[in-house]
Amino acid sequence: MKITAEQFQKLAPRDNHWVAGMRRGIEREALRVTPTGELAQTPHPAALGQAVTHGAITTDYSESLLEFITPLCETPEDAERFLQDVQRETLKAMGDELLWANSMPCLLPENEADIPLAQYGNSDIGRLKTIYREGLAWRYGRRMQTIAGVHYNWSLPEAAWQDITGIADGQEARNRGYFLTLRGFRRHYWLLMWLFGASPALDRSFFGDTDRNGATRLTSGAASLRMSDLGYHNKAQQTLGICFNALDSYADSLSRAVMQPWDDYQTLGVRDGDHWRQLSNKLLQIENEYYSVVRPKQLQEPGERPVKALRDRGVNWLEVRCMDVDPWAGAGISTSTMRFLDCFLTACALGQNPRISETECEQLEENQQRIASAGRTHGQRIWVDGAEVKLTDAADSVLKRCRAVAEQLDLHEGGSAHVAAVEEAMEHLSMPKGLPSARAERKIQKMGYLEWVLSRSEKLKKDLLAGETSPERLAELAQLRDGSIQAEAALPRSASAAEFDAFVRDYVNQPTGLND
Question: Glutamate--cysteine ligase domain spans which residues (predicted)?
Fold first, then answer.
């Protein structure tokens, strides 16, 4: 029998057998920068191991853009501790370099070509990963790819989805339950941007404005320029029409995107002689190129495409991708924010979330732009159920549902940490000056963007290095490092250019499961 939000509020802690199985994992991105706030041009520190096979320390788009990945964690404290430890040990390997403490980038090179692509060695998969980034450079420019974020990976055990959906089959229950949650998330994620956005400004070097490098561009009232048209945005992707109503429609629409040729990319060409420009001339080279605020996820087998993993084994977790780096948190995200996300996502799972029409989808995208660029504008309104309403009224409604969930999570866990996290968010409705974006704006107005973020980066490095990493964690990280080196050495390597061409062709042309 399906559990409603009202029934959930009445459950005793002993009945929430699936609450204990809730898990979260974090992917935190951070640019390596020089002591003066410029993008680091040094290679990935060798002492960290091999980025292509490391389970906790890798790189994202650029060789200078680190990504720290936690394991699945039972508590927010576990995730925070892991991130602090892994960043502390990384900083030790970086010498005098810093980890940039904001989502929008540091002082970027005048020549965009001087933003280095991530390098993953000469294995077939390593070369493919770099070619994919070369394609991103041609398609969107390198500057956009230096933006950093925090991804929150969240899951409930299969039994929870069986309870929530009333479906006995485990995989079908997971698929239905996660897409039910996705629909609720897409309707309400504007609230996460408003509450936790922390990027109201950037340096003008982001635009290649060589005459004004080091000058701040501040958008007063903005919550997250990272999520605005200045950040992850692409006109070609606006034509995708990715459907989040169900797994089949989601997988089909994503499959079409990796099969659909695009005129500009056909003109660019896949190769220029022996030099690869991109993996394909399709609208998306691979599924991960789609800049979504949230993704349904499943573990992939080596060489397997994401959409095939989803079709074959269903959804296993959700990846929330709309969170800015918290400039005040050593881990890039606080435990309070993690608890709020757990409440928010659980509330989405328990909500009544009908399918999203094309018209509503357009309205939800409009909500994103309003919040990202002008979320703190007095009297801001957003779309809810086809009508424009006051942001504060809509936020109050969602936060009340989150608080009801928080009470039950605290009953299970003990204490009042979840309720405190939601109440802290509710306080911002009457006092928006306390929002991270508002606090950042005031600091930037006084100091300038580069100066303020550089000071935060220095403070976070000092605080992290003042702590200690346990012997157990050091041993764990050493094992991950050594394992990454051994695993990279064992990766297949083509003996000829023709053999590598075949490898890329086979990877790009994998069956997607689309029947039409």
Answer: 16-371
